[in-house]
Design brief:
By secondary structure, the protein is α/β, with parallel strands linked by helices. The protein contains 14 helices and five strands. The chain has three domains: 3-67, Arc Repressor Mutant, subunit A; 82-125; 144-335, Nucleotidyltransferase, domain 5. Strand 2 (197-210) and strand 3 (216-221) form a beta hairpin. The protein is elongated and about 95 Å long.
Length: 351
């Protein structure tokens, strides 16, 4: 490195307007000029050794100008022939590799004689994501339209002097304890936990979500039979204003339709049950709340006993009710039916 080149790099490092990537590259070359080894440079600048080697070689070939220019990329979709882009898109949509269910950028790149980054840019430009798949299930309930309209009507236009409650059970919630203590999160490293665990039993969480207020009535029971469901209905009866009707949105689980439950409901006429269509749990907003408690409190929790798990669930319910945030339903029944119709038409076309 000649003195003029060194002065140029030092000026770039000091100047506030210099892009940080140029500052990093300049520092790499200056430290290398001082005789520091590559690994030590990488550690000092918090980068990788291949990065150090890359920009030292670039400086050796082109001087400071080599640091100010990014490496040339492979052919981009704009520079490719239209036929090449079309071939990649068609192959992605209508073929699969002989040894896999879907293409990756590298397998497609080998197939087409392109770089994997070029394939990635083509996929991005055309909205293609072969690595992802979404699950679905169309309800075959003969009363799908009626049940859908009934439930959505409760969300969008709830009756006067009544509470709309979404009710369901989250069964088999496991009290899992990790086999070894994990490490806490720190700068530059996420928290850790072992992949294996010890089971300490399960509990069943019964929950009733107030659609308007966002508060939750919840209880944990060892099982989820009709006996436990009746206990939970009595709890709802005690913890809600007695002068209000209660409209409960439930799924079609047999417990909810047990003769003992039906008999109890006859003696408590303020309870009105509304059932979602089969295979349509997404219509019940309490499922959304179950997702929240799973993500925030259960999935990464460490529980040495079932009572400890129940205590954590009860704490979450209590804190939720101190600052409730209701889920707002926005889709009308006709919009949902239109989307379901498109989905049915697409599946028929594909098969």
């Amino acid at each position: 490195m000649i003195p003029e080149q060194k002065r140029t790099l030092e000026t770039w490092v000091r100047a506030r307007a210099t892009p940080q990537k140029i500052v990093l590259r300049s520092r790499i070359c200056l430290l290398a000029h001082e005789g520091q080894p590559n690994q030590q440079i990488a550690q000092q600048l918090k980068t990788s050794r291949p990065t150090v080697l890359l920009w030292r070689e670039r400086f050796h070939q082109a001087g400071p100008e080599g640091l100010a220019e990014d490496a040339p990329h492979g052919a981009s979709p704009q520079r490719l022939e239209e036929t090449q882009v079309k071939a990649v898109v068609e192959a992605t949509l209508h073929t699969t590799p002989p040894d896999a269910t879907h293409w990756t950028t590298r397998t497609m790149a080998r197939r087409m004689g392109l770089s994997h980054m070029t394939v990635a840019r083509i996929w991005d430009a055309h909205g293609l994501q072969p690595h992802r798949v979404k699950t679905f299930k169309l309800s075959r309930d003969k009363q799908f339209v009626e049940k859908l309209s009934d439930v959505v009507g409760l969300y969008l236009n709830p009756p006067d002097r009544a509470l709309v409650l979404c009710v369901d059970e989250k069964s088999q919630v496991q009290a899992l304890d990790r086999t070894q203590p994990g490490l806490p999160m720190k700068k530059g490293r996420c928290g850790t936990m072992t992949h294996d665990y010890t089971r300490h039993g399960t509990t069943c969480l019964f929950a009733a979500l107030d659609v308007l207020a966002g508060t939750v009535i919840g209880s944990c029971y060892p099982r989820h039979r009709h006996e436990e469901f009746l206990k939970f209905l009595r709890q709802i009866d005690r913890q809600t204003p007695s002068d209000l009707d209660l409209h409960l949105i439930l799924d079609n689980y047999g417990t909810h339709k047990h003769p003992a439950v039906a008999h109890w409901l006859k003696t408590h006429p303020r309870f009105v049950l509304h059932f979602t269509p089969t295979s349509s749990s997404w219509l019940n907003l309490v499922e959304r709340w179950f997702g929240e408690i799973t993500r925030k409190r259960i999935r990464r929790g460490v529980f040495k006993s079932v009572p400890e798990l129940i205590g954590a669930i009860e704490d979450y319910v209590r804190l939720n009710n101190q600052n409730p945030k209701p889920f707002v339903w926005t889709k009308r029944a006709d919009e949902i039916l239109e989307k379901v119709g498109r989905c049915k038409a697409a599946t028929v076309t594909q098969h």
